[in-house]
């Protein structure tokens, strides 16, 4: 296992499948995920044609906050979805 894969796997909410998806968009470390942000990562994943649900968006945010995705504040979830939807629609992809 690559060291950065192990680093990402230490984050809450992220399993091997999620880490492999993150690697496919160039996110290889916790710092990469922080820099890109959960919405940016989610948009990049969707733009690669990988069909993921909003749960991954929540999981990425939770990973950065060290909180299980299901425990995120509903208002925060709504803001994440709103921002992702806005960016996706501005690209003409939903």
From TrEMBL:
InterPro entries: TfoX-like, TfoX_C. Residues 5-83 form the TfoX C-terminal domain. It holds the Pfam family TfoX_C. This is DNA transformation protein.
